[in-house]
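dumping this here so i dont lose it
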């Protein structure tokens, strides 16, 4: 899917108000910018979905409850959806059950394999499903439950190994065996990552392994706003990676 439909991201600005009226205006501008950004992201996704075909491979990393996975599955492309939070994964698996081409996998992705602590928010008891959008492997998330009472240990899959095998036409050895998975994966057309900060480790690893060049389009949401102590690291990563690929190949402004 080289040259995939990925229009330039709109420029977003915010205002700083000095009184009540200017503060209200700044909030209105921020809301308008968010609406514009989400509309742009939806347009990007729709353009990519229009090009996916049966036989293509798409990976949804940080699939949560499947808002992106379901439309991908509807294209007929072979889909692998990774979600480590068990509450979100139960809903994801339910929504993908009608699609034989979709394979939900209860695991996080990173640049290494093993087990890691999934840090969850203090909102879990009050909103078990809604709170899953902030679950992360990274320390330092301002939304995390400081006491750690809702944290879980989850399996982690090395995405670099998965993609290396897929690009070589092999069934990934790093993934748990599942019935119905193609013996010879097709072309990796789409990689979507919304992994709550872990992209800081994973994206450079994918670049260093020369894997991003072999993927049709990579969409990444970066989370520098959630990890204030790591903000400079995130921004440096965006400059380093973003400067090496066109936005049509690797887009770091996904929602």
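and the seq i came up w/
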């Amino acid at each position: 899917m080289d040259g995939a439909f990925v229009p330039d991201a709109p420029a977003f600005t915010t205002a700083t108000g000095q009184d009540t009226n200017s503060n209200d205006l700044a909030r209105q501008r921020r809301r308008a910018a968010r609406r514009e950004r989400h509309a742009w992201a939806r347009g990007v996704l729709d353009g990519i979905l229009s090009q996916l075909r049966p036989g293509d491979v798409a990976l949804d990393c940080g699939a949560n409850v499947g808002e992106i996975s379901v439309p991908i599955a509807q294209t007929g492309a072979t889909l692998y959806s990774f979600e480590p939070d068990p509450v979100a994964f139960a809903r994801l698996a339910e929504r993908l059950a009608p699609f034989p081409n979709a394979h939900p996998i209860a695991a996080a992705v990173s640049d290494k394999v093993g087990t890691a602590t999934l840090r969850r928010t203090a909102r879990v008891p009050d909103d078990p499903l809604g709170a899953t959008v902030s679950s992360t492997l990274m320390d330092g998330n301002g939304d995390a439950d400081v006491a750690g009472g809702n944290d879980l240990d989850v399996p982690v899959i090395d995405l670099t190994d998965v993609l290396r095998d897929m690009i070589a036409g092999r069934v990934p050895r790093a993934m748990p065996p599942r019935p119905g998975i193609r013996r010879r994966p097709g072309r990796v057309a789409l990689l979507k990552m919304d992994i709550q900060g872990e992209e800081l480790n994973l994206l450079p690893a994918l670049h260093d392994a020369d894997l991003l060049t072999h993927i049709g389009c990579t969409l990444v949401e970066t989370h520098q706003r959630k990890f204030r102590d790591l903000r400079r690291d995130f921004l440096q990563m965006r400059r380093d990676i973003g400067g090496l690929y066109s936005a049509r190949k690797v887009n770091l402004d996904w929602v």
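Helices lie at 20-49, 69-74, 86-96, 159-167, 199-208, 231-242.
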